[in-house]
Amino acid sequence: MPCSWSRRCRAADNGLPSPSSSPDVESWGQIRRHHLRMMRKQVRSIVLLMALIEAIRVGPVQMVYAGRQGYAAPGPEDFGIAYSVGYFLSWLYLCVFMVVFVPLFSWWVPVTSSESKKTEKIVEILQKINMVLLPLSIGISLVTYIYYTIQTLIYVDSRTIGSKSFPKNTRQNWLVRLFLLGGILVSTSFGYGAFQILADMDLAHVKTLEYSIIVVPVQINIGLLWGTLMQYKMEKRIARNEAAKAQKVGVEVGTVDEKAALLEV
């Protein structure tokens, strides 16, 4: 109910932001922040999904107790980023299982030989389904990552919210894209060299697939951050030069006005 006569209502209305006052243009910093955040999410999803694949392939119990308690030792394929993350997830799973399920539920759940066979069949079917769905999800995350990477290289300037129109082909925009590509090139080159040195020193080994879909995206993210930093510095320099020019013009105008005043006198 409107209460324009009330001083309290008018004060409350004045304190609320107006819908029309919200800016309809988002800066390139906001766009870049959103794209980089989505790219990091895709990388985390890929790591988690690959870790789940490793845990399913080896088995959580076999992975945690590898080489102990009568379980087989780790095989030649049991290494890498996904295997390490899968080991951690399997360890958490066993901790929760031993702390929650065993003392609270296992004592009253009857298990017969026929039921155990049915359970094993169900588990095998679920594992086969997961081994199909998990790689598919990894592919979707990878495609999404590539999409946001391309978006980052395209939209390097401010734009209207929700607009998909391409930015102007200005020299500054292409220079920003050059900064981003240069940062990606530097980060991937240094990263490749660092991993080669670690592998030669037998300190760290990464599978080729993991390097392609985990390490390279992380290096690209770092390169884009470097390019973003260069863009910030470039815009600060441009703003500083424009401010200096404006100040110089203001001084010149003031000098001319003073001379005109003296001539009139």
From TrEMBL:
Keywords, alphabetical: Membrane, Transmembrane, Transmembrane helix
Transmembrane segments: 46-65, 85-111, 132-154, 174-199, 211-232
Protein's name according to its UniProt entry: Uncharacterized protein
Organism from which the protein derives: Capronia epimyces CBS 606.96
Classification of source organism: Eukaryota, Fungi, Dikarya, Ascomycota, Pezizomycotina
